[in-house]
């Protein structure tokens, strides 16, 4: 009887672990999708920065 109870307990623990791991993977996937959507939304309308900084326009030098 005790060994049966122990096996049942271990089986329930394994089920809970599997469910927790499934939920963890789902949360990671959801967070990744949200992050990508936010970044995409923020990047709309922005031009990428030039890779070569020498191509940036220089401000006019003041006579001071």
Automatic annotation (TrEMBL):
<feature type="region of interest" description="Disordered">
    <location>
        <begin position="1"/>
        <end position="23"/>
    </location>
</feature>
<dbReference type="InterPro" id="IPR009395">
    <property type="entry name" value="BLOC1S1"/>
</dbReference>
<comment type="similarity">
    <text>Belongs to the BLOC1S1 family.</text>
</comment>
<dbReference type="GO" id="GO:0016197">
    <property type="term" value="P:endosomal transport"/>
</dbReference>
<dbReference type="Pfam" id="PF06320">
    <property type="entry name" value="GCN5L1"/>
</dbReference>
<dbReference type="GO" id="GO:0031083">
    <property type="term" value="C:BLOC-1 complex"/>
</dbReference>
<protein>
    <recommendedName>
        <fullName>Biogenesis of lysosome-related organelles complex 1 subunit 1</fullName>
    </recommendedName>
</protein>
<comment type="function">
    <text>Acts as a protein acetyltransferase. Negatively regulates aerobic respiration through mitochondrial protein lysine-acetylation. May counteract the action of the deacetylase SIRT3 by acetylating and regulating proteins of the mitochondrial respiratory chain including ATP5F1A and NDUFA9. Acts as a regulator of mTORC2 signaling in response to hypotoxic stress by mediating acetylation of RICTOR, thereby protecting RICTOR against ubiquitination and subsequent degradation by the proteasome.</text>
</comment>
